[in-house]
Design a protein that fits this description.
By secondary structure, the chain is mainly α. Helix content is 68%, strand content 8%.
Amino acid sequence: LPVLRREDPLVRKLTSMPGALVREELEMAGNEAATENLARQMGEMRAEVTLPLVAKERVIGLLNLGYKEGNEMYSDEDLELLSTLANQAAIAIENARLYENLKQSQSIIRRGDRLASLGQLTAGLAHEIRNPLGGIQLYASMLRRDLATDTAKVQSVDRILLAVTGLNQLVEEMLVFGRDQEPRRVPTRLDSVVEAAIDSARGS
């Protein structure tokens, strides 16, 4: 079946004048190019009758019907009943779409709640890590002062202090990640971002 877009003549026609289109009536209407184009499009879809599915004054789909049994014409009563069914179908489709959007919104909210909980957990974990790190840094600094004349032991203590500094930096990054922050836009050199990504990939 052909794919119809909003700018197609058939969709534009049903948008501007909602109601059933009957292909045989279009073919009998005359030789106007626009009318013939509508009949041709319906023929490509094997549709004898086309009804718009309208929700909130917007065409969201088309209902195409072939010949009736015995190749009979559709009566006015048939078209009236079909229009009612098309309206009900449009409401059902729109309600299904709204329900799907609601589920997606609920999923986003739950994800936001989980992220908020993760931020609280991160803050608590960072606090528990920082306390012992502060003690290690203090005692390592005191030990370094006492071992000022022993170069080999001072180097070992320096490695401890360097490791503590690295862990403190990691904790700070955890806290930044866990905070609810507004994104900041700053000018950035694209090549430096690419190089950082490559370095990170090589490191992993």
